[in-house]
Amino acid sequence: PEKVSLLDIPVDNLAMTEAVEVLVDLTDSYRTQQVAFVNADCANISFKNDDYRKTLQEDADMVLADGIGMKLAGNVLKRPIKQNVNGTDLFPRLCAELENTGKGLFLLGAKPGVAEAVANWVRENHPGMLISGVQHGYFSADEEPAVLEKIASSGASLLLVAFGAPRQDQWIAAHKHELGSVKVAIGVGGLFDFFSG
Ligand code: UDP
């Protein structure tokens, strides 16, 4: 899809329905595709943090403009983007598309119990969506290999990582070759806290 450079971040210029379609297509990819949501806060961090900016420029296969701030920045900078594609609107649509496809979801991140609560939200609202696994985001460096193994052996197609930016996106970039059958790995910030009730 068409990229628009906003504050040195290559943003995919997609409307919500298009973004969902592309993500569904990417779940048939031959390798793990990295997706990042960037809001105004993230753009600010990226401006100051070279490693994060490089991750968005070089590691991410897809960057979605999350929040009205990015839409406004596009207008002001005369690089208008189609739509604000935020994670809280996108997540239920993605679940609806992946229901009954056998493509599983792994939820990684947030405080203990939160990912499990999001899994329960999914089970209630999208009963045909396969949950491949859950794991909280407060594991130690020593525990990391076991977490990677848990994901790699889960059979998941879609991995959501909720550690907050920039850590989640740098974590995905560092580990995308260790995620087994995961085809799409998305950094989702505070999304789990929103869907945990
Ligand atoms: N988080 C985590 N592990 C950590 C630090 C944070 O899993 O070591 C989680 C935190 O519980 C929250 C999420 O990361 O659910 C995102 O936090 P925040 O809302 O601060 O991130 P943002 O949406 O601003 O990127």
Automatic annotation (TrEMBL):
GO molecular function: N-acetylglucosaminyldiphosphoundecaprenol N-acetyl-beta-D-mannosaminyltransferase activity
Keywords carried by this UniProt record: Glycosyltransferase, Transferase
Domain of life (superkingdom): Bacteria
This protein's name: N-acetylglucosaminyldiphosphoundecaprenol N-acetyl-beta-D-mannosaminyltransferase
Source species of the chain: Armatimonas rosea
